[in-house]
Request: fold
Amino acid sequence: MKIPFSPPYIDDNVIAEVTDSLKSGWITTGPKVKALEDEIQKLSNAKRVLCVNSWTTGAILMLRWLGIQPGDEVIIPAYTYCATALAVLWAGGKPVLVDSGEDLNISVDAIRKAITPKTKAIMPVDIAGWPCDYEAIMKLVNEPEVKAMFQPTSPVMEKLGRIIVINDSAHSIGAYYDQKHTGSETDIAIFSLHAVKNVTTAEGGAICMNMPAPFDNEQLYAELRMKALNCQTKDAFTKTKAGGWRYDIVGMGMKANMADVNAAIGLAQIRQYDSLLEKRKHVFETYNKAFKDEPWSILPPSTDGVRETSYHVYALRIKDITEEQRDEIINEISKSEVAVNVHFIPLPMLTFFNGLGYRIENYPQAYENYHHEISLPCYPQLTDEQLQFITETVIKAYHTVIK
Reply:
């Protein structure tokens, strides 16, 4: 039985929405992008949402808006995908890597120890869709002694008066925190809408804005929307109107906008996201039932009374094995044509970041999380028959390698 890892969810509703965009004669940024922004705003409870062409571009855009300068530090977990760190580097900042907790997410204690007068931002990551401890992180940046240490290097930083929290919510659209969907707990949250995500636009991202007073999130939306279009004073849709050709460039912007033809995919998906999320939850619960009595299994966090995952990745961990044994188990699973993955290879283990001086020995929990983790297929299209085949295959592979 051949089972892919994470195919996109494409049904007749998606096809109809994309076809409508194609037939409209307008396929770049326009009404469908705006409609998707409105839907994500409703889902996330954010004050404003801007859709862009990727999570990475959205993060770079926000860090540049913040005014990151050379030498400014941004605290991120060592256990994350490379985009978290690359966004900081492209914006001109210095990524400061810290270790994780046993729940895969960034350690708040490690954040505290890493804060210096050069710290300008913290970017926690919701690994596999499991929300970080937002309350603790926001409480930390608002502590008097932490605020007293803060040294702004831009007008935006001066206006905020503390470290900004930009949550890497790439995995967590639809997750819950304190009985509501996530996206409004930190200053900024950025969802990914990449092809393998719970809601996809093929490529894309969504910036959720929740800046506190005296910031005006409506004004910030307008500013970022213009920055995402090369700081052009008119978007392409407006310029096509009769007599609307004249525009100006008022700053150093980026090409970061999302196209309507992409937004159409996500628009059709998010309108039925409640049912899609329930199907993902069913996959999680099926796996949990199959593995909970296996003495070697560590089930991924899914709910704790305050938080609930978005059920994006089923990050199964296996006790008391080496990295090499984990890889052998993956090879055994692959023989049955079940595609699995690993989330993530810690940044210091990657050639580029190792070359920058980061060493995995400094992040023991990140390595511990990584070396015995196997991500199983988790998406709405999976049938109970397929789920049974996957669980049987994983259990068999474990016993084949660990005798």
